[in-house]
Specification:
homodimer, about 450 residues, alpha/beta, Aldehyde Dehydrogenase, Chain A, domain 1, 5-stranded parallel β-sheet, 13 helices, 15 strands, globular
Amino acid sequence: MSLESSTAAAGVAARELATWSGARRRDALHAAADALSAAADRVLDAAVEETGLTRQRLEGEMARTTGQLRLLGDFVADGRDRPVVRSAGAAPGGGDIVAVRVPIGPVAVFAASNFPLAFGVLGGDTASALAAGCPVVAKAHPAQPETARLIEEAVVPALGGPAGTFAVVHGGADVSLALVRAPEIRAVGFTGSAAGGRALMDAAAARPDPIPVYAEMGALNPVFVFPSALDDERWPATLAAAVTGSAGQLCTKPGLVVVPAGEAGTAFADKLAAEVAETPVFDRMLTPSMASAHAAWRDRAPGADGEATAPDGGAAPFAVRVDGAALDGELLEEHFGPTVVIAQSTVAGYGELAARLEGSLTATVLAGDGDDDAVRALLPALVDRAGRVIYNGVPTGVAVVDAMQHGGPWPAASGAFTSVGTASVERFLRTVALQNLPERLAP
Amino acid sequence: MSLESSTAAAGVAARELATWSGARRRDALHAAADALSAAADRVLDAAVEETGLTRQRLEGEMARTTGQLRLLGDFVADGRDRPVVRSAGAAPGGGDIVAVRVPIGPVAVFAASNFPLAFGVLGGDTASALAAGCPVVAKAHPAQPETARLIEEAVVPALGGPAGTFAVVHGGADVSLALVRAPEIRAVGFTGSAAGGRALMDAAAARPDPIPVYAEMGALNPVFVFPSALDDERWPATLAAAVTGSAGQLCTKPGLVVVPAGEAGTAFADKLAAEVAETPVFDRMLTPSMASAHAAWRDRAPGADGEATAPDGGAAPFAVRVDGAALDGELLEEHFGPTVVIAQSTVAGYGELAARLEGSLTATVLAGDGDDDAVRALLPALVDRAGRVIYNGVPTGVAVVDAMQHGGPWPAASGAFTSVGTASVERFLRTVALQNLPERLAP
């Protein structure tokens, strides 16, 4: 369908979807999960071809994607997405005021390239919008048209809603802007670059009727290593795996590791840098422009450590070593790909350093019991700068659960919301107060 | 204090307020309520002088304003604003993920002219931001500087927080924009005109780091009268009082009343129009420009019914009578002041008419048992276009309770939120997930 027909159909479908019970929405989401599972082989073939990611990684992502559809279906079937708040006798005359949740209307979703399934056209944004009872017009990532097409083909009949319940559109930046500007669209879900997210936000804010853009735009994801963690032999390898997994193409990839000044810290930094540098070269990044950007960063980064040779379109992992005092400018920005900045600083200086960081999806602490006081002193700064704070773990791996917060202060996200977990559904609901309405008339 | 000093101090104060317990925040809000009560006489004198509203009306508003501070204080003391969500064992390795709420940071509040107390510098936006633990820089309405100054003088010492916890600034549009652009400000609360709200939204969206603007911008507040309600003698006078109360200067004033075509409907419309027209002339509106706009609307409105003479700066109440088919353009826009559009339409045509309305704070149904089927048919359209749906009541009077929704689809509000009631606190909190963090380190 053309963009115009898709958004027009979504506008009509919204009225019917607003009448769907939680059970009906669950059935639709579960049917979509089943249909995607049934089509898994050909979808995975296309995704491997279009992304260069390994089949094993994409199989895991497929399980997560269908699991997410089922989980959100169960969540809304219970009515947990629509808590009813009753203020008994609060209306003049003694009637009740009852606050109910209703779907916001058609949602535009922009598929991310780095998770072709879990953040693709039927990823978390689409699943949570459908769970809320909102039709979705999803734009495929331009690098992954066939993956998106196969998903659409499998899922549309399974959902069973009216025409316009779910549609996939294709195109470049002009189509993206037209989709955000379409009058029927009431909200936007986006996962991608800061520049891409900002362009959509600007278009949405300039509409005659501005609409919210829920944009998740990646992050630096700093890791602070405390002295008692320096002897823990698992961390250098675990961190290096988080930096280089999926060729470093995760929005939660740790991009900055801060270790204590001094000998033990230097030894830890050496090990981490070596683990990263020794990771086998990746033949391919998601897109040629990502590969070029990674290579260009290697060329201009101060103190870059690691092999710099990779095939065209591929990526050689490397670490950048700097003194904490030198952390500034580009060293504090996200660099997509298998690369990390390792900085050394006195532990007393961690707070000042954290306060200079931009908002981030995550912030991580690696520590032992002996570091409690120092960790306590740093935590408020991390809570202030991040959407998720991890203790003795790595930030990659985003659990699809009630308590997940996948978002963070600007520029990690466009606002205070989560794009992963059951709370992601809230984005696509609004509240209506029914004042003095007799029970027999309640919708 | 200058704007720059106020926002800088708020930025520093935010760190301390983020550590305040719910009980500490309750104590601050209750102390503010006590201090405002103690200063009530001189604040009311100033407000009467600066607004032209009656002392009786302002005394009621004072009670609501202090009640709101106390209610929100009690709400956060209980921790009800910060539900904790725990996903046990959800972290890799078996640790928990725990979602907690934290304050968003300094908030800019713009006082409305029509509620100099309840939506003034210490009104609902300020109360809910302080309740959330956010410092506030409030801009006084330019027409009410002394009211704002007296409130600031009374309340700042009572709050007892660090410098920057609450400050009032004064000025015109340049100061408003500078406040929205101040780097420390993390969110904006606004009640006022659509043009004013949009200007702040545009400035906030153009920041290097866009911030949310919670703007409540008034509405048409349509009322649909069904056949069984036509004989209820209380409605014409009750509606007329809602149209003309406070000289029609309420954002929930019913601006459009739709009555059935036919004789009984015409009789009802006649009575309502007469009740409005016979309301005594108001000597003064809130500002001279509001009075001019009201008079100009009277001059160009088709079918205007009522005395048109009012003193300079005052307002003569009048009704505008039209056929439902003629409802279009300016007839479907909000007109501040003691004026209402009365339209007649077949009941079967109500749905089509409702679908053409812009988003509104409220939509009201006046009906009897015999109208159930027709009301049921109309309700989905009203839920779609309004933040609050009232059955057999008037939209004026906004209860400060848990279930209140004071907001609505664009252009009634800038997004899906309520600016009144306990749920208004949510605007100024964000969620942080703590992953695998030991209990002993929890903030």
